[in-house]
Design a protein that fits this description.
0% of the residues lie in helices and 50% in strands. It contains no helices and twelve strands.
């Protein structure tokens, strides 16, 4: 699958996140010091939307129960072998593009 445009770069400023949907897949886009990262927008514990969590550096805390993830890798900090699905991100002409297949 090719890259799909999801929003403008200006809509996800450094330190911020945004929920987007491509087809039936919910994705959280995070801006960590100017670098964009995209992970599935569902906590592994109870499915809460990670886009509603607090981002501190490269770590987001699930708003429901506090599970913490590294948004650059998708790894659960307490058990790094458990990971969220991640998606390649590109910025083209100020637009954020995400690819579903790696």
């Amino acid at each position: 699958m090719d890259f799909v445009e999801v929003c403008a770069m200006q809509q996800v400023q450094p330190g911020m996140q945004r929920a987007v949907r491509i087809g039936t897949i919910d994705i959280a886009v995070f801006n960590v010091a100017g670098a964009l990262h995209a992970v599935e927008n569902s906590c592994l514990h109870a499915g809460a939307a990670l886009s509603g969590g607090r981002l501190c550096g490269k770590v987001v805390a699930c708003p429901a129960h506090g599970w913490r993830y590294d948004v650059t890798t998708g790894a659960l900090l307490a058990a790094p072998e458990k990971q969220l699905r991640t998606f390649p991100v590109e910025v083209i002409d100020g637009r954020i593009m995400i690819r579903l297949a790696k």
